[in-house]
Structure formats: C-alpha cells, structure tokens
Amino acid sequence: MIIHPIQPVYDKDSKVLILGSFPSVKSREEGFFYGHPQNRFWKVTASIFDEEIPRTPQEKKAFLIRNHIALWDVIGSCDIDGSSDSSIRNVKVNDISMILTTADIKAIYLNGKKAYHLYQQYLEPTINREGICLPSTSPANAAWSLERLKQAWSVIRT
C-alpha cells in the first residue's frame, strides 16, 4: 500500500479543482504533481494562461495559486505497480471536502479517464458534484497531441 505523499495545493481564491488519479513514481520522488518530464500537464496549463512553464515545485505551486487552480488526486492510498493507472487496486480516496469548504470551486476537472471513473465511483456520490473528464496529459495518452490537449484543457480558464 502506497500512501499519497503530496499535499493538495489550494487557497481560498481557488476557482477550479483539478484531480488526477495518483502520483507517478517520478512525481513521488520529486514530491510534487506531474513530475515526469514527459507529462504534458505543465506545458498545457502554462500555455493556456500564457505563462512560462514552471520548473520547480515552488514555481509550480505559485503558478497554480496565481491562476486560481486547486490541484490534488482522487486516490489517497492504493496498491500500484510503478506508475501504471491500470494496475491500481485497493483504493482509498482523498477527502476533498477541505478544499470545497475553503474555496469557491466553480468546476471540478479530472485529468484522464482513470481519475474520472474513480471520481464518479467514490467522490461524486458523497459530494454530489459532477466532475468533467479531460484527456490525460500523461505521455501514455499518445493519441492526443499537445495542440489537441491545449484546446481541450482551455476550459479550465473560463
């Protein structure tokens, strides 16, 4: 059983909540979300907000807060082989209520189908808020080009 090692990023001004499934091995090593250099999350979101791509965990956190984005994952702990979403089992979910009671979250977006399905299964019934599935920024989602991802993800800016 691996316990999620990264704290959520949010403040009272967060308007959008983005949830992934569970941090990759690289993200767990770095101690921050989307730490694998091939993951396109930071390229996509920086482009949407016309900003430089943040590099360090401090720059990434500042970018999120500045752009009113809350970021966390659906899963709080699970068994997982490496970074493979398809191997996830024995899921215990994170309690996102602290984010929802602190910030006026207008929309909840899920980074990829695995996060979306887990959200629908475990969180949506308890918090009673619909989540919106966005295409995964993972390099495993090779069917989506960077440009297509930017178009799909641009909804987070509205």
General description of the model:
The protein has 158 residues and is an alpha/beta fold. It has a single domain, classed as 3-Layer(aba) Sandwich (Uracil-DNA Glycosylase, subunit E), CATH 3.40.470. It is built from six helices and seven strands, in the order E-E-H-H-H-E-E-E-H-E-H-E-H. The chain has helices at 25-30, 41-48, 57-66, 97-102, 113-127, 146-153; strands at residues 2-3, 16-20, 69-73, 75-79, 89-93, 107-111, 131-134. The strands form two sheets. The chain has a four-stranded parallel β-sheet. It has a three-stranded antiparallel β-sheet with strand order 1-4-5, covered by helices on one side. Helix 2 crosses helix 6 (146-153).
Into which percentage range does the β-strand content fall?
15-25%
> How would you sum up the global shape?
globular
Question: What is the H-and-E element order?
Answer: EEHHHEEEHEHEH
CATH topology: Uracil-DNA Glycosylase, subunit E
Number of DSSP helical runs: 6
Helix percent reads 25-40%
Separation, N- and C-terminal Cα atoms: 38 Å
